[in-house]
Design a protein that fits this description.
Blueprint: H1 3-14, H2 35-49, H3 55-60, H4 64-69
Length: 73
């Protein structure tokens, strides 16, 4: 999965406009990064890669780059 594809998936999970996210953005600065986005992340990870993402893992995410690292199969 390319960097662009990872960013697009992050945008899909957070339901933001295309080309909105960059790797250095802080998740806390993104209004759309909320509990619904976290739940979507959990479901998508399980569905796409069979990965279980826990709330502890989500709590450790600080940047969009951290989020994108989870998309590596």
């Amino acid at each position: 999965m390319t960097e662009k594809e990872k960013l697009e998936l992050g945008e899909e999970i957070m339901d933001v406009e295309e080309d909105t996210l960059s790797l250095d953005m802080l998740l806390d600065d993104i209004d759309e990064w909320d509990s619904l986005s976290a739940l979507t992340l959990i479901v998508e990870s399980k569905k796409r890669w069979g990965k279980v993402i826990t709330t502890e893992i989500i709590d450790e995410l600080k940047t969009v780059s951290d989020l994108c690292e989870l998309f590596e199969a």
